[in-house]
Write a structure and sequence with these properties.
With 464 residues, the chain is of the alpha/beta class. 29% of the residues lie in helices and 23% in strands. The strands form 5 sheets. A 9-stranded mixed sheet has the order 1-2-3-13-4-14-20-16-18, with helices on both faces. Strands 8-7-10-5-6-9 form a 6-stranded antiparallel sheet. It has a 3-stranded antiparallel sheet with strand order 11-12-22. Helix 1 packs across helix 12, helix 7 crosses helix 12 and helix 10 packs across helix 12. The protein is globular.
């Protein structure tokens, strides 16, 4: 069953709305390349739309009622937005859930060293990456350094046109005969993804006082001067190495977007935009932007933490019902779209897909009934009744959508946060935007799919 290309249905008004949404989205992912940056920017947008801190409401003992909008934050890396509806919370809420972490390189706790009269930062890769993608390409540093005196220093280097950039070196082709014989997974050792950050030594008149590692010392002097950072401060730092540069329009027709971190910030941004665009709702609308999905949704800021459940308990209490049973009923009666990307069909690798069940670029919002691998291992397999409801909502909202699988059976697989929320007994299905070159440094989306995701998410929280 072939679904039509979404572009064919757009009038001038729809094209103008699409262009505005995609321009805002490109700016968002260009400026926010870490979880912390995404949370900070999202809070600013939410506060401008009338959302207020849940922590403040709890501290004040302020009752919550229909029409109130609150947000909660976990470890500055996970965000929950709640627009209270007029229906009783025990009847359930409508949830959009996306993740804001992306594959990258993280600095190790003791990262800085000197070798061959050059200074390097040692890294540990995060999430599923192909190591050979990360060599000989411009890189930027984003993150925070937390000092013992309680101050936090924000670091972003490599994004401004006047900034320096960084890179991981590659072996020159002239000496790469042995490397070229290796499988792709072994061509570049993950332990060798060290970032070159300097090549100039400190010059001391008296050689007796010269440091043993003069290039490293030059870097430490720069860090102390610009940021007030000492080498020991790396022990309590979170610095991420990401591709340098802004997301760009792609194609002569400007129909696509090329950018870093679109898995899964394309679904995070469209979920956020949909949540903020809705004023009054029948059922309470919730958007979750979470961390750690790329490494199993673990940790205090991942979806397996109790953050969501605890925040919902606080909201129920402030709404006048602090019964543990009410919380259980609320969660079990909820409905969710696990907003995560899917693999776009790529003609150059057509044998990795089964085309009639593949996500076609430009054909709208994707619904994956199941993800996982092999025999649906590790997946949330949505039931037929919920699929029928979702189809009705999308058709009523005029949303272009398609159903798909991540790839051909046995070709691989992947997972999302869907199964975690499904453990409460709520209805959950994966839905998102098709992406080409997923987990590469620069991923590709189609503007029509971005627009239809926004429309679909908005229709869901308004109608589910």
């Amino acid at each position: 069953m072939e679904r039509p290309n979404a572009w064919k249905a757009y009038n001038d008004a729809a094209l103008a709305e699409l262009d505005k949404l995609c321009a805002d989205y490109r700016a968002f992912i260009s400026q926010n390349k870490t979880e912390r940056e995404c949370v900070t920017a999202s809070i600013a947008l939410a506060e401008a739309a009338g959302y207020r801190s849940l922590d403040a409401a709890v501290a004040e003992g302020r009752a919550l009622k229909a029409g109130d909008k609150v947000y909660a934050v976990s470890h500055n890396k996970t965000l929950m937005l709640v627009n209270l509806g007029c229906a009783e919370l025990e009847q359930g809420v409508n949830i959009l859930g996306a993740h804001i972490d992306s594959p990258r390189l993280d600095l190790k706790q003791n990262p800085l060293y000197e070798a061959g009269d050059m200074a390097y930062l040692d890294t540990h890769y995060y999430g599923g990456v192909k190591a050979y993608h990360w060599v000989a390409t411009p890189l930027a540093l984003h993150g925070v350094v937390c000092k013992k005196d309680g101050t936090t220093v924000n670091v972003v280097v490599g994004e401004d046109p006047t900034d320096p950039v960084f890179c991981v070196s590659d072996l020159l082709i002239h000496l790469a005969a042995d490397q070229m014989k290796k499988p792709a997974a072994e061509a570049v050792d993950h332990e060798n993804l060290d970032v070159i950050v300097g090549g100039r030594p400190v010059v001391i008149d008296d050689e007796k006082d010269a440091p043993k590692e003069p290039v490293k010392q030059y870097l430490l002097d720069l860090l102390a001067e610009k940021y007030g950072i000492a080498e020991e401060d790396f022990l309590s730092a979170e610095i991420e190495v990401v591709p340098a540069g802004a997301a760009r329009e792609m194609g002569l027709d400007r129909s696509m977007i090329l950018g870093y971190g679109q898995d899964d910030r394309v679904c995070a941004y469209t979920s956020l935009a949909a949540q903020l665009a809705v004023e009054n709702v029948e059922r309470t609308a919730v958007t979750l932007l979470v961390d750690k999905e790329e490494i199993g949704s673990v940790g205090a800021s991942g979806m397996t933490s109790r953050f969501f459940e605890n925040a919902m308990a606080e909201i129920l209490a402030l709404a006048g019902n602090d019964s543990p049973l009410a919380l259980r009923r609320c969660l079990a009666n909820s409905r969710m779209l696990s907003s995560d990307v899917s693999a776009g069909f790529d003609q150059l690798y057509a044998d990795r897909f089964e085309k009639k069940n593949a996500a076609i670029m430009g054909h709208g919002l994707c619904f994956n009934k199941y993800t996982g691998a092999r025999g649906k291992s590790g997946s949330n397999d949505a039931d037929a009744e919920y699929l029928a409801l979702v189809r009705d909502i999308m058709d009523e909202g005029g949303v272009a959508f398609q159903t798909c699988e991540l790839g051909r059976i046995g070709a691989g697989g992947g997972g999302t946060i869907a199964y975690i929320l499904a453990e409460y007994g709520m209805d959950v299905i994966d839905s998102g935007v098709a992406v080409l070159s997923m987990h590469s440094l620069w991923e590709v989306t189609n503007k029509a799919d971005v627009y239809e995701a926004y429309k679909g998410y908005k229709a869901f929280i308004e109608r589910a």
